[in-house]
Amino acid sequence: MDLQRAKQIVSTPSSDVEVQFNGVSIWIDKVHEDGKTATVHLRGPGEERTQVSISDLKEMS
Q: What HAMAP family does the record tag this protein with (predicted)?
């Protein structure tokens, strides 16, 4: 995924865009100032957040 698309998804909270990281469905919480990483958490129960590379995120259609 590219930086602009990640920012667009984050700025549209009502958006139901499926994004995956390593084959697991996640929510993007925040895109970091470095433009390379984002904080994400798993969809569903559990709120554990982790920082990942934006390039490792994949938008599902």
A: SspH
Q: What is the CATH number of the domain that holds 55?
A: 2.30.30
Q: What share of the chain is helix, strand, coil (3-state, %, to 5)?
A: 20, 40, 40
Which residue range(s) make up the domain with 24? 3-59
Contacts of 17 (CB under 8 A, 6+ apart): 9, 59
Task: Tell me phi and psi for residue 55, to 5 degrees.
Answer: -65, -15
Q: What is the number of structural domains in the chain?
A: 1
Q: Judge if pTM exceeds 0.90.
A: no
